[in-house]
Amino acid sequence: GQYNDELKLINNAPQSQGLSIPVSLTVTGAADVVAPDSVGLGDILVVETPDNWMSPYKTYEKEFIIENKGTAKAEILAFDQTKMISSKVYAYMQGTDWFGFPIWQWTDVTNLPEIDWNTGMPVPMYLQPKSNRKFKVEIAPDMKKVVKDTLLVVTDLGAYPVALFADAYLPPVISIETDTIKVYAQTSSHSESKSLVIDNTAGGYELQY
Questions:
Q1: Which residues of the chain fall below pLDDT 70?
Q2: Contact criterion met (CB below 8 Å) for 148 and 167
Q3: Which of 12, 79, 149, 165 could bridge 87 with an S-S bond, Cβ 3.0-4.6 Å?
Q4: What is the DSSP string of 35-88?
């Protein structure tokens, strides 16, 4: 901000005993944007979800934040997704519902910064000092693969790459040679052993049971 005052010089010079000098102080700040180098979802499985009309495969997600540790605001200018194939990224933004009331909602970064329909100009997207904005990455794998995407967050301070990765596997497939184990006992002291084979040779990931 701008601060103004005056320096008064008390002296014994004739005609100048009320001398004062204007003083102006301008305090500025500097933004300090911090973004994660990478966001990993670990091992995920290809799982069909036929009852989910939004996605035919199970969606995995993980949240992360981009923060401004500085003392001046920073502006997010764009999200470069040219190196993203399997991931989608959303920002937690304040919007409005059907009735015009403010709500917080996840917005695809493809649509950010938003456009002011009255002016046709982008609406500035700021990171205020000492604040952060929440994001999430979503991956819905449809086949076995290694996901290695990169989101480039472009700001007025420079670009920040965020690596997005996961290992997608086909799910385990359990197979049991029999669906029933029968034991016939005629006395209370009867003892007998039965074996059961659990098979996962058709599966693509470790079977846990």
A1: none
A2: no
A3: 149
A4: --SEEEEEEEE--B-TT-SS-SB--EEEEEEEEE-SSS-EEEEEEEEEE-SSEE
Burial tier of 58 (Cβ tally within 10 Å: 0-12, 13-18, 19+): middle
CA distance 155 to 25: 29
Q: Give the burial string for 30-39 (b: 16+ CB within 10 Å, else e).
A: ebbbebeeeb
pTM higher than 0.85? no
Name the burial class of residue 203, with classes exposed (0-12), middle (13-18) and buried (19+) by CB atoms within 10 angstroms of its CB.
Answer: middle
Which residues touch 71 (CB under 8 Å, ≥6 apart)? 29, 30, 31, 129, 130
